[in-house]
């Protein structure tokens, strides 16, 4: 059996919570979505990590951001304009009995312009979250964030363009996020990155199980076993200086030889443009 692990970080806020809904859904893949929603939402995310990555240089990934809940890192994301960020839908919404439940935007903010998780750059509140209307944990795990104020672009803060097509089979694709250098270690305070190889969805399905047509599969180095892990959700996959994917989930746990699954930016490009200021 293939297990699907959404890349979420468990985060408890300090305010009182009235009710906990735990939803564990299984359709050949185990999908965990845990939600609080009464007067407060207690968001659930997992520790951020890039497995067997390398530290990034300042300005190497000027488009990456840390998505924060109550000023604690929960997901990654990519700057696509001065006012909009692209991230994973499961970072800002959860599936409860088949319905998408959005987390209110007020606890969310972003840190941009720093390779350091807890210092440097700028922190800006999120004014609105826009998950894809087709999001259901299996497909369209993508969302836009509208910022409360526009970013000022510098050498350390800039946008990345959207790819019009997926990378070719076997292409080297860079992925980045804040996390540990090896499975089971504490997350890194410095941005990490690594390089994966692109697969066609046909080849990805042959290796393991069905992936949605909106997905982009990237394969770890079979000796290094590098890749994304919990909390790297929403982070970028980049090929030829264009954004090709948004980190969604891993198969059979982190640090394995199994594909890492992203949402294809090319497949969802029209939706991104129509719901942001890129149209």
The largest sheet has its strands arranged as 17-18-19-23-22-21
Distance between the first and last residues' Cα: 42 Å
Shape: globular
**SS-based class:** mainly beta
Largest sheet: 6 strands, antiparallel, barrel
The overall average pLDDT, rounded, is 83
The CATH architecture of the domain at 161-266 is Beta Barrel
Give the full name of the CATH homologous superfamily of the domain at 161-266.
Trypsin-like serine proteases
* Tally of strands: 23
The rounded Rg comes to 17 Å
Strand proportion, as a percent range, falls in 35-45%
Give the SSE order as H and E letters.
EEEEEEEEEEEEEEEEEEHEEEEEH
Percentage of residues in helical conformation? under 10%
CATH topology of the domain at 161-266: Thrombin, subunit H
Unreliable spans are 10-49
CATH class of the domain at 161-266: Mainly Beta
Protein name: Peptidase S1 domain-containing protein
Keywords: Disulfide bond, Hydrolase, Protease, Serine protease
GO molecular function: serine-type endopeptidase activity
Domain Peptidase S1: 50-277
Task: Describe what this molecule looks like in 3D.
With 279 residues, the protein is mainly beta. 6% of the residues lie in helices and 41% in strands. The chain is built from two helices and 23 strands. The strands form six sheets. A six-stranded antiparallel β-barrel has the order 17-18-19-23-22-21. A six-stranded antiparallel β-barrel has the order 8-9-10-15-14-13. It has a two-stranded antiparallel sheet with strand order 2-5. The longest helix has 10 residues, at 265-274. The protein is globular, with a radius of gyration of 17 Å. It starts with a strand and ends in a 5-residue tail after the last helix. Mean pLDDT is 83; it is low at 10-49. Belongs to the peptidase S1 family. Residues 50-277 form the Peptidase S1 domain.
